[in-house]
Amino acid sequence: MGILKKVLLQVVPSLLILTFIIFCLVYVAGDPASMMLPENATAADREMLRDSLGLNEPFLIQYIIF
Question: pTM of the prediction?
Answer without folding.
Answer: 0.69
